[in-house]
From TrEMBL:
This is ABC transporter substrate-binding protein. Residues 397-426 are annotated as: Disordered. Residues 413-426 have a biased composition (Pro residues). Pfam families: Peripla_BP_6 (PF13458). Residues 44-390 form the Leucine-binding protein domain. Belongs to the leucine-binding protein family. Keywords: Signal. Residues 1-22 form the signal peptide.
Length: 426
């Protein structure tokens, strides 16, 4: 009889314990908000890894501070459902080993709610499994790799950039329509960035149409051998899948050996202000450079989004030199606030994922956002840009396509005007 009573007591105690654990909720699904990592009644703690130093720091080091400046603007106007966004920025130097270290610190020690806009294909690839196994929202990765669009394998990861294959298709469509008959070549980063971009170019032009293909690694800044091969191959048009530092290196090296093709540059490596700062007195080499983008032009004087971001930059980012990296960082911040609002006041990690998969977000982008339960890819198109008389701006229509064999079509819808106070509403 004593054993039966003791067993009944143990069962009852276990039931109480299970109920208590369920109320806490491993992911904050229960009523106790304190159980949601990084979320309190007054704060949302978010982290990122960025190359504040290292081979990819040129331009890119400005992105996260711009995002933080946008969050400071939102915080000064009441935050999101009364919570202020605290953005912790960790420098990984574009080194995948360092990325793993700082991301684990953010998740395991700082207990951030989400990782936002971690930058780079090689660095971020190494933390995909960790973040998804840990069920940490891995949002709006700063890279156009198609790896971020794998909802079955990585349900917590979402892209932001137009993917590199879509980008390559749009650049190649311009070549086909405007530079027909010229010898086309390719120089790209030796990873998914370069491979995906080349795949897009070849989808449109054909694999045999790219006469010379060269690659680089970010640990070696001597690109003279590769540029020499492009010149020796008689290349007249060169598509660059390069980060800004290597775009500048490529164009500068080419000039030193008397090689002056038409350059078509990936959107992630073609910001004029960043490249001009790298090239200094040789910035005239950028004249005529072609590229693509999908966010408001930093040079525009009549775009309301550029006006908004410039104002926030002046007020909350120390007046940093305004360029496309700042537009990018603030655009990421705007989308993240939209997602938080869509997730609702009772914020959980899964609730945020569900809100993003419902889609429907509109903001600064010229192309559509493709978020859905079966699509985590981010923006789905781009528009051509050109440097003329020291100014980089758009021309022609915006195009949209997919990373498969779909056609490249014009996208006619213009982005909406920003809210009067620069902050999205529910």
């Amino acid at each position: 009889m004593h054993r039966i009573a003791h067993r009944a007591f143990a069962i009852a105690a276990c039931a109480v314990l299970v109920t208590a654990l369920a109320a806490c909720g491993g992911d904050g699904a229960g009523p106790d908000r304190a159980a949601v990592p990084g979320v309190t009644d007054t704060e949302i703690l978010v982290g990122t890894h960025m190359p504040l130093t290292g081979p990819a720091s040129a331009g890119y080091s400005k992105i996260a501070p711009a995002t933080k400046a946008y969050f400071d603007h939102v915080n000064a106007n009441g935050g999101v459902y009364g919570r202020k966004i605290n953005y912790k920025i960790m420098d990984d130097g574009y080194n995948p080993a360092t990325t793993q270290q700082v991301v684990r610190e953010l998740v395991l020690q700082d207990k951030v709610f989400a990782i936002l806009n971690g930058l780079g294909t090689p660095p971020h690839s190494g933390v995909l499994d960790f973040l998804n196994t840990s069920r940490v929202p891995d949002l709006f990765v700063a890279s156009g790799s198609r790896a971020w669009n794998a909802p079955d394998r990585y349900p917590y990861t979402f892209g932001f950039n137009t993917d590199y294959t879509v980008e390559g298709k749009i650049l190649a469509t311009y070549v086909r329509n405007n530079l027909a008959g010229q010898k086309v070549c390719f120089f790209g980063q030796d990873d998914d960035f370069g491979q995906d971009s080349l795949a897009g170019v070849e989808q449109v032009l054909g694999a045999t149409a790219v006469a010379v293909k060269q690659t680089y690694v970010t640990s070696n800044t001597n690109v003279a051998p590769q540029i020499g091969e492009l010149k020796a191959g008689g290349c007249q048009v060169v598509v660059l899948a390069t980060v800004p530092g290597f775009t500048a290196l490529s164009i500068g090296t080419a000039a030193r050996i008397g090689f002056a093709p038409t350059w078509l540059v990936s959107g992630v490596g073609g910001d004029y202000t960043t490249l001009a700062a790298q090239l200094g007195d040789a910035k005239g080499l950028l004249e005529g450079m072609l590229g693509v983008n999908y966010l408001p032009s930093a040079a525009a004087t009549d775009d309301p989004w550029t006006t908004l971001f410039r104002k926030i930059n002046d007020e909350r980012n120390g007046g940093a030199a305004f360029d496309g990296n700042i537009v990018y960082g603030m655009s990421v911040g705007y989308l993240f606030v939209q997602a938080l609002l869509a997730a609702g006041e009772d914020l959980t990690r899964q609730g945020l994922i569900d809100a993003i998969e419902r889609g429907g977000f509109k903001g600064p982008g010229l192309a559509p956002l493709r978020f859905a339960k079966d699509n985590h890819s981010g923006y789905g198109g781009m528009r051509m840009i050109k440097v003329e008389q020291g100014k980089q701006d758009y021309f022609g229509p915006t195009y949209e396509t997919d990373s498969g064999g779909g056609p490249v079509n014009e996208y006619p819808e213009a982005p909406p005007a920003p809210p009067a106070n620069g902050i999205p509403s529910v």
